[in-house]
Design brief:
- Pfam families: HIT (PF01230).
- With 119 residues, this protein is of the alpha+beta class.
- The protein has one domain: HIT family, subunit A (2-Layer Sandwich).
- 26% of the residues lie in helices and 21% in strands.
- Strands 1-2-3-5-4 form a five-stranded antiparallel β-sheet, with helices on one face.
- A hairpin with a 3-residue loop joins strand 1 and strand 2.
- The relative contact order is 0.21.
Length: 119
């Protein structure tokens, strides 16, 4: 069921505390933790505590939680000082876009120049 924890979801297991992660911030609706394969000096994932497969389905079902994810990404950027030089927030949707964990999540990237276009 949408919004409910999924037994086979890595990020649901992190939210539950069953899989360790380097958590940098938590709120009632989000968890932010360091990416295990960082692509920039600051690379933090911000996830909702509720399970939705991607950002679009999260936003459609629970727009306030989607807003919380974005707000927390900004808060993490400030805490990590990534806001001093700029940062990027990325939502990958679908395997063709590089999504490998099908639990909505934002990648916060910063701490180095981020060229455009990406990829």
């Amino acid at each position: 069921m949408a919004g409910e924890p999924q037994a086979d979801c890595l990020f649901c297991k992190i939210v539950a505390g069953d899989v360790p992660a380097t958590v940098v911030r938590e709120t009632a609706t989000t968890v932010a933790f360091r990416d295990i394969h960082p692509q920039a000096p600051t690379h933090v994932l911000v996830i909702p505590r509720v399970h939705y497969p991607d950002a679009a389905s999260l936003a459609a079902a629970e727009p306030q939680v989607a807003a919380d994810v974005l707000a927390e990404a900004g808060a993490v950027a400030a805490a990590e000082k990534a806001d001093a030089t700029g940062y990027r927030i990325v939502f990958n949707t679908g395997s063709g876009a590089g999504q490998t964990v099908f639990h909505a999540h934002a990648h916060l990237l910063g701490g180095r120049g981020l060229n455009w276009p990406p990829g």
